[in-house]
Design brief:
Rossmann fold, six-stranded parallel beta sheet, homotetramer, nine-stranded mixed beta sheet, alpha/beta, Dihydrodipicolinate Reductase, domain 2
């Protein structure tokens, strides 16, 4: 591939969006790519205005992803996009990803991947047939110290893993408990847009994915208790799940949007026969290793003592905090590396397989929540 | 009652014991009581030696609690003991408490209270018949900031409670995972001494008790997953429990002795419709209240802004740390107040009712762990 | 100005540089600017290679800033650069800034601004004559919660300020104490490249600037104790300074590169008659306000309760960490706003005046360190 | 000495006192001693009432320490006191200690030891002549993890020490800044009762003592800036001090009572050529060791990995917090050990030499504060 920045398009993410700008900052901050087109909204005015604030050529700002695909396909090859970022509500992910993959465009897609497990499996075969890069933004796996955790667990430094506790408490819907509204929340609480799960789909999948990324453990069976506390909510806003992982490992996963006063408290604890481990997303540049001998060790990012993947995932020396945008930028860098190389080998980003497992997890949790039986086996 | 220090006896707690000295320091530090006799060990040499290090009259050092009861009963009334502290393995609690209560001696007993729920109920009627003080050392409820948490929840400052998460991770058995021994652990892992439960009896009951002390919530039904990770362990060393409290409150309780690198990490989070709350036993002088408005407030002990019970439970000004011994001393102070007053009214210590609930909790958890059904109702 | 990204050039910051990439990421991440040219190194190979990794047109990659200025000036106006980022050792700052300002190019320059106070004053008149934007990257003032601190102090919420404690401990030179080398450190320890000060110039000025940014306080007189612990070091690597600010405010500033095990621990505490304040660069998304009533309040970024400047300086919702790059990007955004508006009014970035004060601070500290008198008045 | 509890008397510390009860709890909690007499107040009613709450024989409750000495001296030897605890305002310390020492009674005295350095030196020769135990309650040196810090520094694990930073911020006088009163503060702000120094005497000496206890370093010269912020205050309520220790070690000591919102924030950082160290009194059971390799290690009390002195100074297993009372109790235990052994060898408590150095420090700081010269040599 010639020596140039990659060209991207975006679907969704117009003015007022939370995740759209994050994708854009993450994709461009390392100077490896630029956005050249987008369908930022189905509202023409909004999409146009979004394109203008991004200094895009107005002719490459669309209202419909199919129109975008068609028009962009007709451009000369030195203008064509290399990848598209899909940052819409869940309901649209599948078809958007499908058409761009089939047109030979690499895809970065927000999670959860699809509306159903069946759809997820279909998408998997589409990705495989396409030969294109498909990445899912399980952003938290992009943090340097998560990679260090993965390294230490995979190297066996913790011994045999016995127990994994992952929590994802948020409290942003708490005001709705008190009957106050919040427009931000609308589509995530609408089954037609978000799918059959609420907080389990939105954040529970992050928790499952984080544990699996670090440990490699697969859920064997689980037992879920889901609740919707918010009056009128059709989807669960809180869930606690007992988990049995394969290999005689016990665990629990919890996710909540009504944990009043919590912000974005994803955290994980892993206990092995030799050491314990703790990482917390809100203080992401540190990793705590707990010894049974009476001390704990806090590693901080940016130091040569860390594994190569962790060092590579950090842009700044120690003591200079990095955050969520940089974590997502690490996923984009891995995607760009794969696109430039024409091969995904050695490129560390969440894949369509992670998306399939995520959808299987969601459906298993929903099945368990509706069941009187204690254990439900993980769906495949 | 005349103006004098109260006189106490101790059963168990000889040289090498962990909890015996804690009871002694807690009972005497405020200058309200002194120990005058004890049966510190069934080994005569050990009991004698223990008595000597405590500067006791050798004639009042025994090897058997029944002998102690008999001999002490024959002493003149200005030498007789006002209370006895029972700090032996669980198997002995019931009978020791019984005989002293029936002899008119007030009792402070370690937890869990008995070996079975049936025994616990019997003890309850014995206590009631005796008219004596019976206190159980659920020590963590003696911390000043736990009392503040209770006050704030009970006053409704958190709004309607939706969710309660209590964890009690320890890692002190981790070395046994690796096949190394630890004499400290012996009786707690022996069903004949400890009862049918391992970590649930030893520390899980603390977790249940702490949540109930603060919130007043009663478990309606639960779903438990227990494990024994340590090779050869006949009792569980790890447990995760989904809990439904009465009043549509969700929760979880976990207890573990194999969480490598954890020390004594009892902690609780409570989420109401208005505020969230966090307290951690290892940093006990602080209470965190989380607001959904974007800030959290950390209250520290020893300040006039706190409720009266919290202020009374603190011996030092702000900024001067207090710890576990002082927490237990608060329980003893409440016991002494009740003994002096001849009435338990307004005396805040854990009672035989807490003991009955604790045993019901243990048996319900064991029932659930053995069941294929998701939910088991709390035994009565 | 037309609707387009701004165009920038860079001097210094080639492969291996720490601060060059930070400027680039900060300048481009918001999609407001792109770099189109640079003189990344005086080594032609290194500069060329750097340009290539940035996908620059090779014809716009230079080895000399004067050559770059001359060639770029000859380009048509729709290619000309709007700003230049100067990220070289201190010795070059003055002349580089001078020539670009005189050529009508806006300048963003690393700190400390110049080699001497005299040079700084000269640069100030050059900036004023030019009418161009000149910004100095006192990056820490770009953090959202630093802006909140400033707001709260300036609004009088802390009452009358009595005391300000700023510390900037680093330990990165510690290995040199033990006789081990570190190439990173070379030019910062060379008076010809760094100027007459070592850690006071490199990080002490950040500390002084942070305190002044938040409180508006000006140093009246100071008393400095400087040390060079590292064998052979010609510049101080540690300094402790007593400060009297105007308005009867006491303070202290310390800076160190030999505080073994510290990373980049800039932190500030401010005590007023009503409240105290604490902020720490290594955990930058939180601001602690301490009440004398027995509680402290921790505000976290991304919440509507914060002042408008703080909210604007944050790109993500609460609970999603932001870091050092985003802090610097906030400075670039303010610069870009000023360039687009053709006016610096309402644009919050560190100016040439901050640079002059910084150099006055450095020279006053050096004067004090060499003096037997207790107090030395701040130079003007 | 026969096998019995030691007998103590107390001077000062009546109802309403802060430090009196702390001494009592500390002295008796380990079952090694009991108080049998006291002159708790010069107000007879108050002293009598205090004696009653302590269940003392009314005939041994006094209003005057000389009367107490005389009456107690006439008691049979099996009732005589072994030690006296002096917990009055500073002005009385010297004479009280003198008369009891001369009467052959061991003394535990609150700090600062005397009103002047000259008095301190006199007391030193009185102590030496008496052959009795004289201990000063620099309580913070009784914490287990302070002993661990001392051990690690003295063993050379930190390498050669370069820098020591000790801070003792309090904010309890902050309300007086706002013109509100506080009876607690009266005598400490009265030069006739407290001596020539305010916060330097009350808490600055703790800071100096802590640094010296851990490192063994002696102040060579210092430079102090003292302030009284509180209107009408005759003594300083804030001080910042540059310190040069012997052996080319730099440091700073600060003490403040107007640091609004701080509680009792004594903390120390020590930087050697190999490692850094941090300990904070408000979280006393942990000791942080900072490595230049990118990690810090937090040791917690109660673990076998710690040095023998630290283990001996802890009464509970890891994870069970200990606090200020236990720290002081460690000092009393060392005193009791010395009394029983009739020798101070191997007994780790603060001595009259610490008191002399403390008074020398206070007078040197006051001299420096009044001087225009930068450095004042430590008085002897």
């Amino acid at each position: 591939m010639e020596n140039r920045k990659l060209r991207g398009g975006m679907i969704g993410g117009g003015i007022g969006s939370f995740i759209g700008p994050v994708h854009r900052m993450a994709a461009i901050m390392d100077g490896q790519a630029e956005y050249v087109c987008g369908a930022f909204s189905s509202d023409p005015k909004k999409s146009k205005k979004s394109g203008k604030t991004l200094y895009l050529n107005p002719s490459r700002v669309y209202t419909d992803y199919k129109e975008m695909l068609k028009k962009e396909a007709s451009l000369p090859s030195d203008q064509k996009i290399d990848f598209v970022s899909i940052v819409t509500p869940n309901v649209f992910h599948f078809d958007m990803a499908r058409v761009f993959l089939e047109a030979g465009v690499n895809v970065v897609c927000d999670k959860p991947m699809t509306m159903t497990l069946a759809e997820a499996k279909k998408l998997k075969s589409i990705v495989e047939k396409s030969g294109k890069v498909f990445a899912l933004t399980y952003t938290y796996t992009g943090y340097p110290m998560v990679k260090q955790a993965r390294y230490m667990v995979r190297q066996g430094l913790l011994g045999k893993i016995n127990k994994v506790v992952v929590e994802y408490p948020q409290g942003w819907l708490a005001n709705r408990l008190e009957g106050k509204g919040s427009s931000l929340s609308i589509w995530r609480m609408d089954p037609k847009m978000a799918g059959a799960a609420g907080c389990i789909g939105d954040i529970g999948t992050h928790a499952e994915n984080l544990a699996r990324y670090i440990t490699g453990l697969e859920v064997e069976k689980l037992c879920a208790d889901l609740t919707h506390f918010i009056p009128g909510n059709r989807l669960e806003d809180d869930g606690s799940i007992l988990v049995n992982y394969k290999g005689d490992v016990k665990g629990s996963i919890s996710a909540s949007q009504i944990s009043t006063g919590e912000e974005n408290g994803l955290n994980i604890r892993i206990y092995g026969t030799k050491l314990g481990l703790y990482w917390n997303q809100e203080n992401p540049n540190y990793l705590v290793i707990k010894s049974p001998e009476g001390y704990s060790t806090t590693y901080s990012k940016g130091n040569p003592i860390l594994c190569q993947d962790t060092q590579s995932a950090s842009r700044l020396p120690f003591g200079h905090p990095e955050g969520f945008i940089e974590a997502m930028a690490n996923i984009y860098l891995a995607v760009f590396k794969a696109i430039r190389a024409g091969s995904t080998s050695g490129c560390d980003y969440p894949t369509v397989d992670d998306g399939v497992t995520g959808m299987a997890f969601i459906e298993t949790v929903l099945t368990s929540a509706a069941s009187d039986k204690k254990w439900v086996r993980m769906l495949k």
